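Lab channel / #folding
Pinned by the channel admin:
"Please post every new chain as: sequence first, then the structure tokens as a reply. Keep commentary short and put observations after the output so the thread stays searchable."

First post following the new format, from NK:
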Amino acid sequence: MVAPLTVADERGLRGHSLDTQLRQVFYGLPPEKVREMARQVTIEAGRRRLVYVREGKEEVINILLRPIVVMRDQATYFHIASLALLNALKRLPDLYLHDFDVREAIPLTPDEEKWLLENWRKSHHENNPVFGRLDAVVDFTTAMWKESLKFVEPNLSGIGGIHLIPNCDQVLADVVLPMLEEAAPDLQLEPGPDLRDMFLQEMTDHLEAIGRTGGTICFIDPKYAEDGIAELDPLIEYFGQIQPETKIVHADPSELYVRSGEVWYEDTKVDLGYRDYEVRDLIQMEKEEGLDIKPMKILFRENRIVSSLVGDFDHKSTWEVLTDPRFTEKYFTAEDRHYFKRHVLWTRVLRERRTTDPEGETIDLLDFTRKNQDILVIKPNRSYGGDRVLLGPSVSEGE
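Reply from TO:
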């Protein structure tokens, strides 16, 4: 007897079949065509400003030639699961203020906590803007693709990729797909939704929500940094082409000032800011460089910053709030808990304590960590870029 395939199985097999077809077509291309494809992709990437700035010099970012394909129903499911997590994360400032156990799981510095107390208002409950990225891993090509989706950590403010992702998609659509479709006319692929349009819609919707429709948007980031991904200026250029009626400026936080109760950049009044700074960065700059943080405080307090103060809860330890029954059963619905249990990696702040394991059993955390080194990862709660990450299977017990 053969058990019938579930709908999820059938979708996974279709994804596997599509990926296999794409591999076969790609690897069947003549070498000279692949070389020409690579040359054109590099040219087009440079033209579209897909660059990384290193020591003041621009380097064109390499793009994987063979596209990774996602079925529409897979993308829809990822969207639903992501919204469940994002809506839960939006509640963290209130949970932090009312639950000391949450404060232990997501520790803010005293200065950050003071900033939260001073600038988190009732208006944020009704309109709580967050434009973030939820880092995850998934295998698109297996029948168990839903089960393979695991969220690794949240990034809730100043995210990278708003310019890069849609332009990478478009480079592949313009250069690679025509060559693939010439070899396999029945292969029909298209770019995903344009993240730039989603971002601009989020900003303009929030301007309307706070009663500043048509106001000026200010990108606030390390404007004069010599290293990093150059995204914001190309974004401003793109938005100027598709929605010229919306004024967008680019400012370093040191260039903002207050006049008559309003925040200004040069001779332009700022109605809404998109930030690429954590609050702790601003606090440090105030202490070490004398930065006037009053303009940023006004924007936060008046709910005129994307992302809101939720962005400062993008600790890896937020996953503890979503995976520990003492929080999930108290604050979240059964549907929420379903998505958390299925897709959020078990995470705990590592210290001498008792907690629950992935099965909900009470454990001594340090003892559990020693015994299960081969399946665990230890990493700093608030760092990034692979800093001090320890993969249990690849390090000694001493490490």
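NK: The two ends are 51 Å apart (CA to CA).
TO: also worth noting, The longest strand covers residues 150-155.
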